[in-house]
Design goal:
heterodimer; A: about 300 residues; alpha/beta; Rossmann fold; 5-stranded parallel sheet; 4-stranded parallel sheet; B: alpha/beta; TIM Barrel; 8-stranded mixed sheet; 18 strands; about 25% strand; binds zinc ion
Amino acid sequence: MKKLKSRHILGMAHLEPEEITFILDTAESLKEILQRPIKKVPPLRGRTIVHLFFEPSTRTKLSFELAAKRLSADTVSISKGTSSVVKGETLIDTAKNIEAMKPDIIVMRHSMTGAPHLLAKHIDSAVINAGDGINEHPSQALLDLFSVREHFGRIKGLNLTIVGDIAHSRVAHSDIMAFSKMGANVTVCGPATMMPPDIESLGCRTVFDLKEALKDADIVMALRIQKERQGMALFPSEREYAQVFGLNSSIFSLLKKDCVVMHPGPINRGVEMSPEVADSNRSIILDQVTNGVAVRMALFTLLLADSREE
Amino acid sequence: MKNRVMPPILLKGARIIDPANNKDQVGDLLIKDQKIDSIGADIQCEDAVETNLAGKWVVPGLIDMHVHLREPGFEYKETIETGTMAAAAGGFTKVACMPNTSPPNDNESITRFIIERAERAGYCKVLPVASITRGQQGRNLTEFFDLLQAGAVAFSDDGLPVTKASLMRLALEYSLNFDALIISHAEELELSVQGCMNEGKTSTKLGLKGIPNAAEDIAVFRDCCLAELTGARLHIAHVSTKGSVEIIRQAKARGVRVTAETAPHYFSLTEEAVNGYNTFAKMNPPLRTEEDRKAVIQGLRDGTLDAIATDHAPHDILSKECEFELAANGIIGLETSLPLALDVLVRQEGFSPLEVMKLMSFNPAKILNVDGGSLNPGHKADVTIIDPDFQFCYKREEIRSKAFNSPFLNKKFTGRAIATIMAGKVTFDLNGLLKAR
Ligand SMILES: [Zn+2]
């Protein structure tokens, strides 16, 4: 594969396995740059990347910005407070205004599902979905794939178990699709009140018992409890959640010897994951963070590769 | 216009479909003095505008018992004039308009305003449905008697359900004094309010919150129970689920005075139409699954569902060209209702044209207790001419409605109304078929 088929990165739903492998391979070659003393290379000099964040974010935004800067692109950040969206401007108007300033890529996070898809329909720049509502967070899924591939040397045939609020987690949606597309076996586990209908249709099985779900796992991923996305409380208390679905030191005896633990962050320590687990030698959580920059560098590079060859 | 004497219209050699008399036969039909004068084998009339209609259908003017005309208040979406123009082009001679205007139709002056506006426009008779509660606030009943006097044909808080069961009971009870019809927008908001499409496989795939079938089923069941309790006349609007169809079927079997309608989109589309976050496929109730679609068709076939009504819901582009969750509910339907019925019900599902005309004219007239749905000589001449083989593409530029929020844009259809006559007056004539020569 020489270039991506997709013009935008809207979701794992739209990416084909070959494209995914291509992105991961590109990220692998770019990760080396991050190990250098001077972590900056020139390929995107003169390019402009706009980060349009309609929802608060620290680590994702930072990761995207760093990725852009490592490649020498100019970056502009607009977050909800400073943009004109609050003044009642429609998303399309905002986007067209930004488009008029000729950016090459718009990275957008939005609280509503499908907002980046709408944006992509109306503008010429490439769009990267940095999280839309409860729908998708493709760059997170790609960095998760990357981290797993880096650790195990493969993705195919591995057993991934995702524990937590599946219904309100865009990370879960993207990861289920991403890992199943790449040949892993995905299991989801969590309170039944947080399971969307027909989740199996995305490519996973549902197990309600945590022990059962952890038994054969090669990778266990805990999700952040998204209190802010739930209308009413979907479980009785954090205490009970931690008791039934929390990943604490008692799980170590259940896990396969080489099973690793992941979390998309930020962690509610003591709720979905205890410090003993998060900080254990099984954890590859901090690798995920480093790899996030490499994967996002790959996305920028590949989305702009087309015009660069001209 | 009013003083001009209309020449008689003689329709020759057409397939005359009359659901009131269960007749479907080839013949001539003469319209004279705004009335259906006669039907026969070889009618002659010297001064008539005569048209040969071999291969065409002549049917009673179609009646749509559920549309939103948006006036007063939302004239930027649709006006009574543009909405009725679309109605005439769709073959309709009567439409019943829902009260969720601004202000809502909760008093006789608005009811009269709507009727007068429609008469002035002259495209289609408009039958106002008044709100059940004042301001559609769900608290106090409107003045049923006064509204009926002014010309309201039924009561509904459509757009919103009557959330309080006690108030719905009260409305049904009070309707008994006038044998008035209560139309229920059946929705349990507690279960639906967060959702924006059908709950199921597609909502999970698209990452959108869903509305389960139960949100409709529960509300339909509640209102059927209340109709049974009170003995009043209930009509269920826009049935979309398999469960509702079954609940209504059982209520009818028990003798409950309930009737029901569904919309063309519920028998022609499924939730899949939402793919790509298509806001033109967003409506309430939402498009459901194939299983529901089939159940709705079965309901139409076995008489559980009495009528096809469009729920014509025009919107300006700003209300639709936005984030899916923010987009307004509803689609326009007046100009695609008959083509969809011909496509899906007649050609795919094997309904007879007579059955479809029952669903689109005779039954709605009966439910609303207005004249229509009949070609009996002496009846007011509300007549629609259909060319079942007419091929066309439903293009934005050709839509009469002010809005174009339809999931059927650019769809190719076979069959449509080619002329519409309301009370002897030609309100739509696609190709100049009825022009006096
Ligand atoms: Zn309604």
